[in-house]
Every structure is written in structure tokens, then in C-alpha cells.
Amino acid sequence: MAVAEFEVPKVQPYPLVDIPKIKPDATVHLKSFPASEKIQEGIGFPGPLVDNWHKVAIDKMGDLLNRYRSLAVYMDACVHCGACTDKCHYFLGTADPKNMPVARQELMRKVYRRYFTFAGKYFPKLVGAADLTEDVLNDWYSYFYQCSECRRCSVYCPYGIDTAEVTMAAREIMDAVGMGQKYTNEILGKLHRIGNNLGLPGPALLDTLEGLEEDILEDTGVAVKMPIDVKGAEVLLITPSADFFSEPHVESLIGYAKVFHEAGISWTLSSLASEAGNFGLFIGSYENMRRAAMRIREAALELGVKRIVVGECGHAWRVAYSFWNTLTGVGHGGEDEFTRALQAQLDPRYPAPQHICEMTLDLINQGVLKFDKEKNDHRTITFHDSCNVARGSRMGNMPGGQFVIPREIIKAVANNFHDMADETIGEGTFCCGGGGGILTDDLMEVRVKGAMPRMQALQCVVDEHQVNFMAAICAICKAQFSKVLPYYKFDMSMIGGVHQLVSTSIRLSEKK
Hints:
InterPro entries: 4Fe4S_Fe-S-bd, 4Fe4S_Fe_S_CS, Helical_ferredxn. By secondary structure, the chain is mainly alpha-helical.
């Protein structure tokens, strides 16, 4: 598909760009393809726009306000202080004022005031309330799909208002009236039907894994296995389906396999649950999130595993860490017989779930894994903190473990590492620009412009330290940067996974 031409933002010298001069409606024209009626029905929504859409939308908003107390608080709490104005990468990249988090929220807040507050019902003009019209709904579709739900703005908001929750609510309302996005909803439908976002059936997955085993054997001389559907394995690995075939993702899958091999840990993938990603989060649909996650519980019970480990995927880890307990009973939560059976089955000595980086660093600290760090000497490495890991979850048994653990792995397997500027990493990390349902070519202009702040921070360490490799632990970040880096005159091969670095330097031995 041809991508429309647009101006790529210029990367300015450090420090980061000033607040841009606003360009009203600069990106109002950017709309991703709508979902067809068939796609919508596959995940439980109508399509196209229903006749009584106005009533359905207002009723749905009322339902969400009652269900999620946080949403009602966010609607009332904002004082328009502007602290979030320059914190959004999409505003910095596009200069469209409606990409300011406060202004994007206001698209919903003015409708909330009109229908759910006394003043808005009787004195709408005095309080900035507005009717929900088709024009307003179209603005929602434009701008709530120019938000990656990265939550950076919430870090700087004095009231802790979470724009991501507002975005998810708006998308759920739009889905309820038949205005869904093709990209997210089609992928979610594939997951429900087949078990992964790519629509990769079991036989094709098995063939892919066998091919990878042959590649590893040819490359290393060691028979490293990629097992699938092995009953009685200790570990069930749940990883993004991009790891099965896409570059550079597959290099991290090979790294996982080498870690399991060298540690002597029996493990398996599952053809039933061959996807860690859960796009139900992106559209704010608890029902679809749960439907997707239940595959993992079913696979774990069927295979009889003792541990569940999650691969390199940002939003997948957020869903696993923050929601699996209530969605499926993994961890704590749930009283049904299957939840109790799973809790009794899983080994309490390990976190449930556990991130692959947690497991790998633990093995490194135990001295189980050995590395030839010089094998990564052709790389000068930096690390990109993925939003959903940085701001939506934790890792390990210490505050900030999600920042420390990946970096400790990198330092254990490579000699040359340099962080980007402090204000662009950690909790304040800049988004890759492609998360939250925006990783579609329909929105390439938004993706490229939204990536600008991260590209600027990257350019600084390239200039100062000759960095030529940016590691990440998120499938969407890897896919986004693979496409966006060339727009900023970087080589697309600069992006890769943490376990890609592990794979390069790990010492392998024959295992029976």
C-alpha cells in the first residue's frame, strides 16, 4: 500500500525541542481504516454506525462512568493547568493542539459535561459543554487514534489523570456504536479465532519452529529445541507472535531458547495460546481482554506447567502483570474451580507470571549462564524503555526493577552500553510512537512524527558515543522502529531485542 507523503520533523540539537508553535487541525485528516461489519461482529460489536448511535454512545458512556470510578474522577479533576502540554510525543511531533493530552481529553470531557453534569445540561455554554454530534464523533476517531496510551502525560499531571484510560473509554464507546478501527479489531479477531495476532495456524507455527531449530544447529552446532505443546514441561512461554518470524523479533526468540537450553529448564510454547499480545487493552474492552487471556489459562492447565513466563512485549507484560489475576486467576484472584486448579498447579517459588528478563537475570546471578561479551563488541548499545513496561507494570522484587533488570542483562552480555538522556528514559521514557493500536501504515505520518522525540534522544547518543544498536523488550517498539528509523536516516537494523544480545554472546553446551 502506498503511503502518503509528509514532512518528516527535523531532529534538533539537544536539549529536546521546545514546545512547537501550534498548527490547528494539522492531523485532523489522519484517520485509520474503519473496521468492516464482519470484523466488528467477530469481537462482539456492531458495524457500521448504528441508527440510534447517539443513544447507544451516551448509554455506553454512562455505563463506563459507573463501572470505572477513575474515569469519572478524570472527567472532573482536570484544571487545565497545561502541565501535560509538552509531554505528548504526538503533540511535539505534529504541533496539532488536539494532540495535547488535555485537549484530547477535552473531546470527551465536553460531552461528559453536557450529558452527565447539572450545569452542562442547563447552562452548557457556560461550562464548555457540547452536544455529541457526528462531527464530534469524527474528531474522536481522528484523535483518540493518535494516542498510543503510553501514559507519559500522567507522570507529569499533578492530579494523576490518565489519558490512556480516557482514550480506551472513547474507543470502547466508538466500538459500541459501530465505529471501530480495522487494524486493532481485525487482529483481535484473529487472536480469538486462531490463537495469535498473525493468524498463524498450528501446522505453520510448528514448521516455523522446526526451521529455527535447523538454523540454530547450523549456526552453533548445538541442538537447541523449540518445543511446542509438550505436556509436563516446567515452563509455558507466552510470547508475541512476531517472535515467530519477523526480524528482529525472531532473534530474541532464539535467545530465549538458548537460555532455556543452557539452564536445563524444560519449556514449551502452546499452539492454543501462541500470543502474548492482547489488543483488548487498546480498545478498552474488558470482555475482549478476558476472552484473549483465557486461552493462556486453558493452555497452562492442559499442559500442566509449573511456571508461566512472558516474552519481550510491552503491553503483553502490562496485561500479564496488572490484569491476568482478575482476567484469569494467574497470580491472585478468582474463585472458580479452574482458577483454584491453576493456583494449586503453579510453583509458588516463582512469580506468576514472570518476565523472561527476570528469569534470565536470575540465572545470570546464579552463575548458570556464561557469556563471551566480546561477541557483542561490534555493537555500541543503548536501551529504549517501552511505555507499558515503564509506566504500567513492574519487574522483579524491587521498585524500578523494570528499569534495572534489562540494563543489568545488557551489561552482563555486552561491553559497550550508554543510556540516553535521563529525562527521556525510565518513568519519563518517550514512546516509540507506534503503540496503542497505531502500528498501521494508515497512520504512518502520525507514527513518524510521534517518534521524533525518541529519535532526537537517540541521535544524541549516536553523536556522543557512536551508538549503533538500540535494544528494546517490546514487539511493537521493534516493529515501529524498524519502519521509522530510516525516515530519520538511521539504519533499520539498529533496533533489536535484549535477548538478541543474549543470543549473540551466550556460551552453549550440549544438553541431553
